[in-house]
Amino acid sequence: MTDTIATNESILVIGGGISGMTAALEAAECGKQVILVEKTPSLGGRVSQLYKYFPKLCHPTCGMEINSRRIKANKNLRVITMAEVDEITGNAGNYNVSITKQPRYINDNCTACGECANAVEAKFDNEHNYNMDKRKGAYLPFNMAYPQRYVLDSGIIGTDDADKAKAACRYDAVDLDMQKETVQLNVGAVIWATGWQPFDAANIQPYGYDRYDNVITSVEFERMMDDFGPTGGKILRPSDNKEAKNIAFIQCAGSRDRNYLKHCSRICCMASLKQTTYVREQYADDGKATIYYIDIRAIDRFEDFYAKVQADTNVSFIKSKVASITEERGTGNPVLHGVNTEGYDRYDNAHDLVVLAVGMQPSVDREKFPVEVITNEHGFIERPEGSTGMFAAGCASDALDVNRAVQNATASALRAIQVVNRFSKTEV
Amino acid sequence: MGNLNTTMIEKYRNSFLHEVEANVEEGEWVKMCMQCGVCSGSCPLGPHWDHPPQELFMMIRAGKREEVLTSSSMWMCTSCYNCIVRCPRELPITHIMHGLAHYAKRLGLVPENQQTEKFAQLFWDNLTNTGRVNELKLGLKLYFMNGFGEGIKMSLKMQDVGLNMLKTGRMSPFELLGGHSIKDKTGFHAMLQKAKELEDAKIAKHGA
């Protein structure tokens, strides 16, 4: 072991989703100093908003718990939430980074007892549930949030609610004078784990996501299944809160389409196949799922999962890119119009609910990065030619499922470690 | 030149796709179709076609030359452009339909009494005469396209529209006496003649 550890031997990971957490932990568990920066008040990212993983159908909360424990147990890893990177200067082995940290208004005395949330009245859109319901102005982002500390929404600062929250806290954790801070760091390597966002389904005008209540996205459907989600774990139609038992899934909603996202988002076929099992889980033989697809891309070993879903007689497959959706008067049922290309039969099928399997796009536009990054035509980060100290991990680099994102993140951690070692002369 | 249809059959034996690519306007796009069916589902006249666009594309690739070229399907296209707007691969479907119709006509394979084809010919003859569309003559020709009795019926049905157009100066009765024209009619006709020569030369290349 070298005797001195310079600051430029540390690694900065930007983004605290599954890829960022993985990259940060892998590097930190190799003995490197790691700083993990996350924009929102909690780690977890998009994966924390999923009900189950495919193909094993286990719950992501389990992995989140393991990762939280790994983070707590590791002295090499420092997590900064509610922070964004403003500027990066320098070269591989020696980057100067400027980070802006937004005030949480809650210090680390917080025990997550929830008294402040009880006291506060104002409500805001709940980002964790894709704005399908409201949360209080003092809130824990979600039950498994890391760090387990409440947040005051900046919207209540300066109002009575802020004072009520302060008065309700028995641990002196509310600090209304907290200010925005700038943090300067010196690091040797940077990992972009900035992740993905669902394609905005409102752009697909013929599907009427912005006009019809009962047309929702696949990510919203995931939230419905969560016991702590907007519907308390029930599949309900947004228009009338009736049980939705006859559900249509539309594949390639935004993907593989030159009008929207040109690339195949790779996860949506498996996501919809998985979601048909939710329908069965909830309604048994009363639940019907219909998948409208161009072709099912259940890659490599996922073929088994596809075969299993195909064997379910309550799941049907229609080979067709749906042309348009209209709404049935009176019932609010969405009606799907198109042609089944196996036999060229026209259909006008009414369903209780339509789930659009929306595509994956990078959550940060290339122009929004504080430094120049090279992206492919779809906006995913590519590795530049020659040596660099910056690497993309997970969905910042491509449309990936969780399994592949974690593999990819581990690889990027290894690359970052090599850069740091090269400059600290521990490796030649 | 011989019979163009026979020539083409010989030349592209078993490869109708290549024939379409070489001879049909925008035909090189046909191979890009991924058979998603969104064009067929989006077509407002879809229920009235024998074969919707994506089926036609598959038939072209399957070498069903006769069925495609004698089909009335592509003649049903109203150029609403719904298919082009929605096609995930940006195929110029409307244009391909017109290209197929045009090619079928050149080969003499249009189904008998095809209404769209008849009107297209009327329009072309009307327009190329003076370089301007003579609406009065075109309208009358259209009404009488399917016989004298039909024509009288149609004229009576449309007489209010016609009279109103006359009244508001949208149509002149003097158009019957020849009608208005572009300035350089001779030049215009020379241009069309040249275009025809070029076109014929292109086809002659395929000739036996």
Can you characterise this structure?
The complex is a heterodimer of chains A (428) and B (208). Chain A has 428 residues and is α/β, with parallel strands linked by helices. Chain A folds into 3 domains: 7-102 and 180-195 and 363-423, 3-Layer(bba) Sandwich (FAD/NAD(P)-binding domain), CATH 3.50.50; 115-168, no CATH class; 199-359, FAD/NAD(P)-binding domain, CATH 3.50.50. Chain A has helices at residues 18-29, 60-73, 115-119, 160-168, 218-225, 268-283, 303-310, 402-423; strands at 11-14, 34-37, 77-80, 83-91, 94-101, 123-125, 134-136, 138-139, 151-152, 181-187, 189-192, 196-198, 215-217, 246-253, 288-293, 315-319, 324-327, 334-340, 345-350, 353-358, 360-362, 390-392. A 5-stranded parallel sheet of chain A has the order 3-2-1-11-22, covered by helices on one side. A 5-stranded parallel sheet of chain A has the order 13-20-14-15-16. By secondary structure, chain B is mainly α. Chain B has 2 domains: 4-111, Fumarate Reductase Iron-sulfur Protein, Chain B, domain 2, CATH 1.10.1060; 115-196, no CATH class. Chain B has helices at 4-11, 16-23, 38-42, 53-61, 65-69, 82-86, 93-106, 115-130, 135-143, 148-167, 185-206. Chain B is globular. Chain B starts with a helix and ends with a helix. In chain B, 26% of the residues are buried. The model of chain B has no long low-confidence stretch (mean pLDDT 90). The interface between A and B is medium-sized, with 20 and 19 residues.
Brief overview:
The complex is a heterodimer of chains A (428) and B (208). Chain A is of the alpha/beta class and 428 residues long.
